[in-house]
Design brief:
22% of the residues lie in helices and 31% in strands. With 565 residues, the protein is of the alpha+beta class. Helix 3 packs parallel to helix 5, helix 4 (458-482) runs antiparallel to helix 5 and helix 5 runs antiparallel to helix 6 (528-561).
Length: 565
């Protein structure tokens, strides 16, 4: 029996005390033990091991020192067992009884009877004492008795007690309110309770953490949102992350997006237990949680399927929120009302967002893809509110998306009740400077340089200009097949048409200049220099005019690219 007192003191060690308080509360329990002759030949009963080790740990016959009931030192085989042991324990240590104990006392002190037996005395009406092979919890105010049966059972720690046909779990511990008592009565820091890591071999510090994390009433309806009142809307705090733009197809006018949504809300109907600093995941289907829908366009449009392939609901304690210790809970739990603690869900979703591209200015211009998010079934009862103070979004992946480059992402929260939701705007601009304008401009320059070849070399002039024009026609055909197909003309079409027309004009100039030169050769000798001079002047005028047209064309397209016009 005295071995139980030693277990009690191990739990009491967690409380702080001064040396004077400890010495004042000590009792010499050895004086009250009777002189018992042991059948094994010991003249006095061994009441405690004395900390010492045998010289050879593998010697089964080795003996260890023990404390006898007469206060002297004895010995016995180290492999034997003591039926009991004693320890020194402060009498002022208070024990707390957790559980649904009704009218029984909550606080007890360890007391000792003259014959050496111990019991727990309540501060008012109750006591816990050992009778036979069981411990009994009684109160003189009523007849009900709780009994802890089983030979060798200890009242300390978390135990199942019996009363008539009813069973209940009680926890008797000397742990302070800042600690948690394991099933065996060991005190550990309260921060280790439900921290997601098993700190004890029996795992009692993580027992039933998820099962009772979110406690809801019996009439809880998971289809009803937690509004703030009959006429007030509930609030969902949101944040999102666009972590992937798969691709944008101009032919179908679609943008494939992967987004992560982090949503927080409060539900006054639930109670949260043992919420720790680390997130604890629970089943989303147990409670109401915001489900996201989407439609195309800015606040209005056709419905779009939102495929959320991953959703996790979790609870993470908010700093500064005070918890409430519940003495009726045998797990020494701390509760938080749902109106003070956020519930959270993180969803990873994939959407195909329709985009209405206007390609009249292709390959220039900004093209916008709009999508509006809203609450499925609860649009009128819940409203959005951004977590961050600045409504700004960033895309950390590659901004170059094949034919387009992502310029900016903006978001906006609607305020009208019928269109509450999340508006995402994706601005994209196409890039075709290197593979369209560069080669075509280069071929035009080659064609244009034929005007500087001597007018007497007609074959070289016309062959180079014709070849450049044919290459431009081939580039235009390739661009038509590979770029965006539209039933209307685009800027890129106008560019190629003008460049090809200028090259054709250069071919005609070469032919015309050569004709003027040849007419001079059939004239009299006096008219030959005059006709050659006229051919050179015609060639020079064409050089200036064609170059001027090309420069004007480039300036106009630069203004289109800079969205000045």
């Amino acid at each position: 029996m005295l071995m139980r007192v030693e277990r009690m003191y191990s739990a009491a060690e967690s409380t702080s005390s001064t040396k004077e308080q400890v010495l004042k509360g000590l009792r010499k329990v050895g004086e009250n033990f009777p002189k018992i002759d042991s059948a094994s030949g010991f003249s006095e009963k061994s009441v405690s091991w004395i900390l010492s080790q045998p010289s050879d740990d593998e010697d089964l016959a080795a003996e260890c020192f023990t404390l006898l009931t007469n206060g002297s030192v004895g010995s016995r085989p180290c492999v034997s067992e003591l039926e009991f042991s004693i320890c020194r324990k402060p009498t002022w240590v208070r024990y707390t009884l957790y559980g649904d104990v009704g009218n029984f006392d909550r606080y007890y002190f360890l007391k000792m009877l003259p014959e050496g037996r111990f019991y727990f005395e309540g501060i008012r009406t109750s006591n816990i004492s050992e009778e036979g092979d069981a411990w009994h919890l009684r109160s003189h105010l009523h007849r009900r008795t709780w009994k802890l049966s089983g030979r060798g059972a200890l009242p300390l720690g978390r135990r199942v007690w019996h009363s008539d046909n009813k069973n209940a779990t009680f926890t008797l511990t000397s742990c302070s309110v800042l600690h948690f008592s394991t099933n065996d009565g060991l005190c550990i820091p309260g921060s280790q309770r439900c921290d997601g890591k098993k700190d004890l071999a029996d795992g009692s510090d993580e027992w039933r953490c998820r099962e009772r994390l979110v406690e809801k009433p019996a009439d809880y309806d998971s289809t009803v949102p937690p509004t703030n009142g009959r006429n007030a809307q509930g609030v969902v705090f949101y944040d999102y992350d666009l972590f992937n733009i798969n691709h944008i197809t101009s032919e179908k006018g679609e943008a494939h997006l992967d987004l992560g949504f982090a949503l927080d809300w409060q539900d006054h109907r639930v109670t949260l237990w043992d919420v720790g600093p680390n997130p604890v995941i629970f089943s989303c289907e147990d409670i109401w949680y915001p489900k996201i829908g989407m439609y195309a366009g800015y606040k209005t449009g056709a419905a779009i399927d939102v495929e959320c392939y991953s959703s996790s609901c979790y609870v993470e304690k908010i700093k500064g929120v005070s918890e409430q210790l519940d003495l009726s809970d045998p797990l020494m739990g701390r509760s938080l009302p749902g109106r003070k603690q956020n519930l959270s869900v993180f969803s990873e979703c994939r959407v195909t967002l329709p985009c209405h591209f206007e390609f009249h200015r292709f390959p220039f211009g900004s093209h916008v893809c709009n999508g509006t998010f809203y609450f499925l079934r609860d649009t009128l009862k819940m409203m959005w509110r951004r977590k961050a103070t600045v409504d700004d979004s960033e895309y950390e992946q590659n901004n170059n998306l094949l034919d387009f480059r992502l310029v900016n992402i903006t978001s906006e929260t609607s305020i009208t009740p019928l269109s509450e939701g999340k508006n995402l705007t994706f601005l994209v601009i196409s890039l075709h400077l290197l593979n369209s304008f560069g080669p075509s401009a280069l071929m035009f320059i080659i064609c244009y340089t034929t005007l500087f070849i001597p007018i007497s070399d007609f074959n070289e002039r016309v062959m180079v200009s014709l070849t450049a024009m044919l290459v431009l026609a081939a580039l235009f055909s390739q661009a038509t097949n590979s770029y965006v197909k539209t039933p209307y003309f685009k800027l890129i079409d106008i560019w190629y048409a003008i460049i090809i027309a200028l090259c054709f004009l250069i071919v005609l100039v070469n032919v015309g200049v050569n004709r003027v030169r040849l007419q001079g050769e059939h004239e009299t000798v006096e008219n030959v220099p005059k006709e050659r001079g006229r051919a050179n002047r015609t060639n020079m005028v064409c050089e200036i005019l064609i170059l001027l047209v090309f420069v004007i064309l480039v300036v106009v397209f630069i203004m289109f690219a800079a969205e000045i016009v």
